[in-house]
Amino acid sequence: MKFYRKQPLEAEQFDGSQKLVFGYSVIPSGIIDAITGKPVYYSMLVDDVCQDSDDDTGVVLEVSDWIVKEADEIEVIADDVFKKTYAELPVIPENVACLIKQDKEWDYNLGMAFDDAFSGYIWKSGVGKWIIAHSDTFARAWLDGYQVEEEK
Fold this sequence. Notes:
By secondary structure, the protein is α+β, with helices and mostly antiparallel strands.
């Protein structure tokens, strides 16, 4: 049997306050929680995938559900299922992201990048020290993709 990993995807966790998710309007349902006074379910109308149809398709969601957008489809995944299935991409500094991009353009492999870090070849920019201190994160970023750390 072969095993496959999922590619990065765009997802947003619904917290009940969003009026728009991926550009679609979120509408509270008529069912109200007796304790909190807030809607139990929400609906999001998305265009039907079939372009020659005038119908809209509704997606039902609850607070804490994850809304996943893949290609032209919207899928709702319960929080516990989402967390078991997906992991957030690692966050790395911009200079490390630049190194990964450059090394891949030069057809380096992960071993060569680690070798450069451990040999001191890329220490001037601080990238080598970061790679050594965060080797697991660097490997995940190299293999799976990454997010660039936001400026503070």
